[in-house]
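Students often ask why we bother encoding 3D structure as a string. The short answer is that it lets us treat folding as translation between two languages. Here is a chain of 135 residues written in the first language.
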Amino acid sequence: MPSHPLVLLHGLNTTAAVFDGVRSALPSTLAVHTPELPALADVDAIASALFKTLPARFHLVGFSFGGYVALAMRALAPERLSGLGLVCSGPQADTAAQAAARRQAIDTAANGATPSWSRRRPRPPSTPTAWAMRC
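And here it is in the second language, the structure alphabet:
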């Protein structure tokens, strides 16, 4: 059993509730934190804000955008992390094509329409096994 708590960071367009099924599948003896990501200017600001509310040392898992926040947390204070996991996320920045598609989705949403990717996005997995199989 890990000696440090587990922190799970959700992605964009989700809340900490995305981890409800995962939390219920974990041992009750494991301290699990699922903070809501604050709406701040950048991942470094989000990471700094989260550090103020989390235990002194913990295992960290970031899902999707939460992975980018987790990497920022590692860069800011690696001594606070006992371990790091990225789920449906990665350590690299978006490619030019991905960045262009993201800008287009932002413009579409800003104009009051729903980006096409958000209409076809499947529900997130609800158990640890489902997470592993999905990504």
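Translate back mentally: Residues 82 and 102 are 32 Å apart (CA to CA). Keep this in mind for the problem set.
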